[in-house]
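Run log, item B.
One chain of 633 residues. Sequence copied directly from the ordering sheet:
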Amino acid sequence: MNINPINHTSTYYVNMKNNKNQSEIKADNCPNEENKLVKELDKMSMMNNVNIGKKDYELNLSHEELEKRTHKDYLTTKKMLAPDAPEYLELADGDKEALKHLVKAAVVLDNVNMQLDNPNNLPFKEYLEKEIEKGNEDAKLTKILFDAQKGVCSLDRESNMIELAKGVSMRPGKGVYPQDLEKEEFHQILINMLKEGKVDEVAKILNQRSVVERAGNELVATDYVDKFRDDFAYMASELEKASEVSTNEDFNEFLRLQAKALRTADPMLDAYADKKWATLQDTPLEFTITRENYSDELTETVVENPELKKLLDENGIVPTAKDFLGGRVGIVNKKGTDAILNVKKFLPLMAQNMPFKDDYIQNINPDGQDSKQTMVDADLVAVTGDVGEFRAGITLAENLPNDDKLSIKELDGGRRNVYHRQIRLITSDDAREKMRKRLNATLNPELHKYYNDEADHWFTVGHENGHSLGPKSGTEGLGKYKSIIEENKADMISLAMLDVLTEAGMYTPEQREQIIVTYATDNMMTSKPTMSQAHRVRSVMQNYYFIKEGAMEISKDGVLNVNIDKMVPTARKMLEEIIQVQMKGDFSKGEKYVTDYFVWTPEMEKMAENIKKVSKTLNGRVESPLADKLLNE
């Protein structure tokens, strides 16, 4: 579960109407012919993801705004392991050496994912560095924000789009599609290509691992491995070096498989690496290249066009949103892992209690056979790329590979949960005082005794395992609502299974109550999110649903009350509705389900005001002292 600035899984963006660039503003004031010319020139300047019309950048935020957003009260910090951390010092020498190579491999994904995110990211970063050399103090402050969110554009905790450069906005296709490509033209190009028999080309455009560019009147896709050949080759080399010194042979085999997948554009090579990775349980080290597809807002729109969808179905093409890449390097925490593993024996029981379980295939076997689910608690050394972006929230845990990956679809592989200790732990007195103030401002005093920040972790364990339950496939037709509904499902599984798991002995009755109240409290938000924020949209949906069912109430003063007895039955009811929507896989039904419950009430707004009075945090950043040291060795 997320205490608002933290997301469960891997992790936004803006209505473009209110973000005109300079050319569009100028064009609005031109006569018709000149208007058309200026707009056409502006489109040309964004072709193939290259901003060729902008030779330089201009900082967008005022000095006052920069000082505010970089102040510690507004920019929270998550610290990864330090060089003197016992977890690191106790490692075998071979694993210490391997860790150095793993960090060097992971940091490459910062540059790679920035290109997938926005074509202006790397040029703007270079601009900032040059301005800092000139003594530009605003550039220095802007660089702090840029490094924190790992990009030029990002939503903050209050769902405001923060654009660090004037005239640079976030596009629905991010950096994986041409910057001038609009949805309607995108659909028409694909229709034309399919009618001309270019099925393989369209399939490559609509898969999760390609960057798409213009080629005359058509589009052409390049596999990530070919697009970032030099970067991936360097990563592969570092993984191979790590595999030569790490003390665990299973882990070394995975590193060699992953290195091979980075050298050749063959998705099956990734599948073999994923399958091996998902079996890792007793390893000293953790390394992952995460591939999640929450950020691409263009690919899955194809199911909204009836003519295009019919052609795709006839040609057996299943559109999948583009993966964004992250890196995770850590040391497996044995004590934390043993505690998390306790849930594994209950997974078949959870599968047996899923709604309509006989009507679909799920990743967990209800009959008690091997669940093909491993899980570790990791002390983090580095989080890079997509995992390390602190954009309104940061990843708290992940359950991978996702159902669209070939290791699941073709190789019948398993899944693996990795939990992020440094991101979830509340260790400072200052952080605890902030939480106390938040409870006083937002929660009925009679319920304070039930709030337990560790219960947030227990809920997250249920959430992550919930991704392995329910329909294993067939949800692609939900399009842009697929991720929202999937995240909603995982939350409701975590809540709906509480009575079953308490009866089975996984939780005590007291822990059950703590999970319920802590979930409800932490689900409250500081602002209405945008529809592109899957993790946050589902929180609003849940809050509205639970209020409507009488399980929760927000007073006119913005104070939450929870009817503990009604929470689990309400979660079960919502879960049943979610599973039915997923089984149908129909875009219109998914859209109706989301819009029916994505309702921001005046009471929610008052609650948001209360939270903001006691918590100023707008964004966050990550500090990685051990990783920094290893990079310089």
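Observations after the first pass:
- The mean pLDDT is 90.
- The first strand starts at residue 6 and ends at 7.
Flagged for discussion on Thursday.
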